[in-house]
Specification:
Radius of gyration: 19 Å
Shape: globular
Oligomer: single chain
Helix content: 10-25%
Number of strands: 20
Order of helices and strands: EEHEEEEEHEHEEEEEEEEHHEEEHE
C-alpha cells in the first residue's frame, strides 16, 4: 500500500506549555499538527502498532505534568476545523472546532439548544470525550452520530447508543478517537439564541476567572452539591502552593498566577481534596485530566 504524502508538521521534543490553557507542562516526544482530517488519518497509519497517542485540542481541562508526554501528541486546534450544515438538517463539526464557535454557528443558522457550548473552554473533540457541560446543558444530549478513527487509520460512523455516557464521563470503543460529530438541534429564533449566548458569557465572566490561565472546573460536582461550595466553606479561596492558587472568584478554579509548575497545580489539587474530605467527608473527584510524567 502506498501512503499519501503527509501535509502536516511533525515536531520533536516540543514544549507543551504553549498548547495548554494552564500554561504549564513538559515536552512531547513528538507533536503532530495535521493539515486536515484526511491528513491525520494518513499520519495515524504511519505510526508503529504500540505507539502511545494522546490527543489535544485547546489544552483546557488538562494538566500535562512537568516531565512531559511520551509517544505522539496530536493537536487538533485550528486544524480539524470544518463545520457546516448537513443535508439531513444536523450540524457537522470536526473535533478541532472550539465549542464557542459551534454555539455561535448554530445560533446564526437559526438552531437552538447548543447555546451552552459557549461556556465550554475546549474543542468539540474534548467535549465529546468527557461529555462536557455548562449552564445546565451537556454535549451528548445533542449528539446524533459521531465519526471515529482507530489506531489503524480506519474511520467509522457510530451511534450514541454505542457509548456509555454519564456525568463528565464517556466510555467508548477501545483505541478509537473522535474525529467529528453530527449535532441534532431544534429550529428556533437566531436573535433569541444569540442573546442567550451573550447572557451566558456575561454570567461566566462575572463568576469565573476568565482573565487568568486555568483549566476550567477542576472537580466534578458531587451528587446534590457543588464542588465550589465545599471548597469555599473549607476557606480555601486564595490558598496557594507555589504559583498555583485557588481562585478568589470561583473556588472550583485553580489559576496560574504567573510562575506555576504542573507540580504546584497537582499538589494544590491533592491538598484541596484532602481538606474537603477531612472537613466534610466528601471525596471530590477531578474533572481535569492529568497526564504525562513527573519531572526527573
Amino acid at each position: 500500500m502506498v501512503m499519501a504524502e503527509l501535509k502536516g508538521r511533525l515536531l520533536s521534543n516540543e514544549p507543551l506549555i504553549k498548547y495548554t490553557s494552564w500554561r504549564v507542562g513538559g515536552s512531547a516526544d513528538r507533536l503532530y499538527l495535521p493539515f486536515d482530517k484526511d491528513d491525520l488519518c494518513e499520519f495515524i497509519k504511519t505510526l508503529p502498532e504500540n505507539e502511545p497517542v494522546f490527543w489535544m485540542g485547546l489544552g483546557s481541562n488538562l494538566l500535562v505534568r512537568d516531565g512531559g508526554i511520551r509517544g505522539t501528541v496530536i493537536n487538533t486546534k485550528g486544524r480539524l476545523k470544518e463545520m457546516q450544515l448537513a443535508e439531513d438538517g444536523s450540524v457537522y463539526v470536526e473535533a478541532g472546532v472550539p465549542c464557542a464557535h459551534v454555539a455561535r454557528f448554530c445560533a446564526d443558522n437559526g438552531l437552538v439548544d447548543a447555546e451552552f457550548l459557549a461556556g465550554i473552554p475546549g474543542t468539540m473533540g474534548g467535549a465529546l470525550r468527557m461529555n462536557a457541560g455548562a449552564f445546565g446543558g451537556e454535549t451528548w444530549r445533542i449528539v446524533k452520530s459521531v465519526e471515529m478513527l482507530n489506531a489503524k487509520g480506519d474511520v467509522t460512523q457510530r451511534d450514541p447508543k454505542q457509548f456509555e455516557v454519564n456525568y463528565r464521563s464517556v466510555k467508548s470503543v477501545n483505541n478509537e478517537w473522535f474525529l467529528s460529530v453530527n449535532l441534532s438541534l431544534t429550529p428556533g429564533d437566531s436573535a433569541t439564541s444569540i442573546q442567550k449566548i451573550k447572557s451566558l458569557l456575561d454570567a461566566r465572566s462575572k463568576t469565573q476567572p476568565t482573565n487568568q490561565p486555568s483549566c476550567g472546573s477542576v472537580f466534578k460536582n458531587p451528587e446534590g452539591d457543588f464542588a465550589a461550595r465545599l471548597i469555599e466553606v473549607t476557606k480555601l479561596k486564595g490558598y496557594r502552593i507555589g504559583g498555583a492558587c485557588v481562585s478568589e472568584k470561583h473556588a472550583n478554579f485553580i489559576v496560574n498566577t504567573g510562575n506555576a509548575t504542573a507540580s504546584d497545580i497537582e499538589n494544590l489539587i491533592k491538598y484541596v481534596k484532602r481538606k474537603v474530605q477531612y472537613m466534610h467527608g466528601v471525596e471530590l473527584q477531578t474533572e481535569v485530566c492529568m497526564v504525562g510524567e513527573e519531572k526527573a
